[in-house]
Amino acid sequence: MDLPFETGEGEGEGRGTLASKVLLVDDEPVVLDICVRLLAREADLIVSPVGSAEEALVLLKDQRFDVLVTDKNLPGMGGVELIAEARRMQPALEAVMITAYASSESVIAAFAAGASDYIVKPFDDLRVLRAKVRAALERRSERVRTRDGAREMARQAAVLLDAGRDAPEPAHEALETELRNYEQAVRMGHTGTVAVVGSAEAVKVLRDAEFQVVELPPYSPQLESADVVVVETGDPQWHTLAERLQGRSPDVVLLAGADADLSDLLEAITLRMDLVGYGQSNAARVLPEKVRMLLMRRGIQRAQQRLTAALDTFRQSIATPN
């Protein structure tokens, strides 16, 4: 039975959340039963199990889900196609792919469709599924918090500007300027520095898309000050580079060709890198879209910091007698 007061991104926003909803899809009844039993131990999860993509799509039309967990090989529509269609229907949905027949091609296809994680079965530890679902829910929650925080900050700025008409003109102008900058960042803030390691093709694609791009060797200290670093799996030092940049400033995008090693891709997923399939017909579209999304997120964060400072200054100017 579904609990009331659920919330999602889209319909039903703002009503609060008592439980998270997981849509589980597998055509093997035994696997489905095990997964349901495992996730049902979590009191705050509502699990809806189905045996086909077609059944899943019926539920997705009428209900909001937080996470989709699907097997790759299904009768009829496959798991990759299901993820793509589910994400089209519910863009905020997190998707996790499960397969017993892992390949580099299937990993790339899953991430291109919108998956954010990948599990190879049989699981060495059944708890891995629960951990992956929890991680997916946390990613979704972080997006919701960021979005809601952005809206609240813009609302506060508008209210303060209206209430503080008699504030000193410099503070008033500074807040208005930062509010405009913030709104612009939310709409289109994809400026920043992109560093590319080991791919002349990626450099050309990103420059053609009008990004500010520099090509750097993997040992360059400049990589740590870039906003986004793009590296190919074909670069023999990508593992070392990825580990070095973990916890540092840049977002790291891994370009994976069809001949990429499966263990490399699974390691990249473990490292929480952004994975982009490359060398395909849509490469010129996929990579710029990913980089634009990452830069936009960074632009919003920076604008939010500046707007917070302007709000504090404005509040102080109102509170301080002339």
Number of domains: 2
Q: What integer is the average pLDDT?
A: 79
Quote the beta fraction: 15-25%
CATH architecture of the largest domain: 3-Layer(aba) Sandwich
- Straight-line distance between termini: 60 Å
What's the helix count?
10
Description of the molecule:
The chain has 322 residues and is of the alpha/beta class. The chain folds into 2 domains: 20-139, Response regulator (Rossmann fold, 3-Layer(aba) Sandwich), CATH 3.40.50.2300; 193-300, Response regulator (Rossmann fold, 3-Layer(aba) Sandwich). The protein is built from 10 helices and 10 strands. It has helices at residues 29-40, 53-62, 79-89, 104-113, 127-163, 169-188, 200-208, 238-245, 262-270, 283-319, and strands at 20-25, 45-50, 67-71, 94-99, 117-120, 193-197, 212-215, 228-232, 251-256, 274-277. Strands 2-1-3-4-5 form a 5-stranded parallel β-sheet, with helices on both faces. It has a 5-stranded parallel β-sheet with strand order 7-6-8-9-10, sandwiched between helices. β8 (228-232), α8 (238-245) and β9 form a beta-alpha-beta unit. α2 (53-62) runs parallel beside α3 and α3 packs parallel to α4. The protein is globular and about 70 Å long. Residues 1-17 have low confidence and may be disordered.
Compact summary:
This protein is of the alpha/beta class and 322 residues long. The chain has helices spanning 29-40, 53-62, 79-89, 104-113, 127-163, 169-188, 200-208, 238-245, 262-270, 283-319, and strands spanning 20-25, 45-50, 67-71, 94-99, 117-120, 193-197, 212-215, 228-232, 251-256, 274-277. It has 2 domains: 20-139, Rossmann fold (3-Layer(aba) Sandwich); 193-300, 3-Layer(aba) Sandwich (Rossmann fold).
